[in-house]
Design brief:
By secondary structure, the protein is α/β, with parallel strands linked by helices. Helices cover 22% and strands 40% of the residues. It has 7 helices and 18 strands. A 6-stranded parallel sheet has the order 3-2-1-4-5-6, with helices on both faces. A 6-stranded antiparallel sheet has the order 8-7-18-15-10-11, with helices on one face. The longest helix has 15 residues.
Length: 287
Amino acid sequence: MKNICVIPNVHKDKNLRMTQSLVSWIIEHGNNPVLNEVIASKIGYAEYGKSTSEIFEVSDFIVVLGGDGTILNVARQCASYSTPILGVNLGHLGFLAEVDNENVYEAVEKIIKGEFSIDKRMMLEASVVKDNMEVVNFIALNDIVVTRGSFSRMVKLKAFVNEQYVDTYLADGIIISSPTGSTAYSLSAGGPIVYPNLELFVITPICPHTLHSRSIIVSEKDRVKLVIVGENQDVMITTDGQQGYKLDSGDTIYIRKSNKYTNLIRLKNTNFFDLLRSKLSERNINI
């Protein structure tokens, strides 16, 4: 018997019909569904509702119904528990999802039987230091981005790797990407595509006001430091495009490899380059 967590994107799973159907299927096949308390009540299974912390403690694996954004959100939440994630694509690109909604029952059945592998993905960790005191820290699967806020001014910041000065950037911002995130914002900003199972950082400036700035690749053992310089800056740090924190002039951001990983469930021998070609072709068609 497995404890199977189901986390839906309520905007993509309209009226939670797919969630309710999957939960019924899990019960009918002799397993225990695990749900957020609010979701459980909405679909008539309140007895299976648990708090956020309990969800990840008791679950054998998580089925995420949504798109890459939903998977990124869950990946950060469950990182401390190493709970495996099955991504079910209800979105568009779906780089992180393993199956689509038509194959979810077959996929869950295979996982229950142990017919799967784990794809470990490196995560990033960022700390913001203000007046020599750490004020906030984040983890991310895709990227840590320092970017301009609401005003259309460029950001001025200094970049260091292992305390070695790299450059001073005048740009719309800078992206520190994991290999997983290399096909996200970093790619749109001109960064390289990185094989997802490698462990390294990609540093990519966003629209730099220079002729020579290019992406820089550093190893997973390195530590990146960014210092906000200049007065009257309107700057934000964001993680996976979902969490944000306002920065001030003089603030320092330290970015390193996290000791946590995202464990993605794989059911087939997916060829990364086939996936890449397919998904980027979809993007071009949809534009």
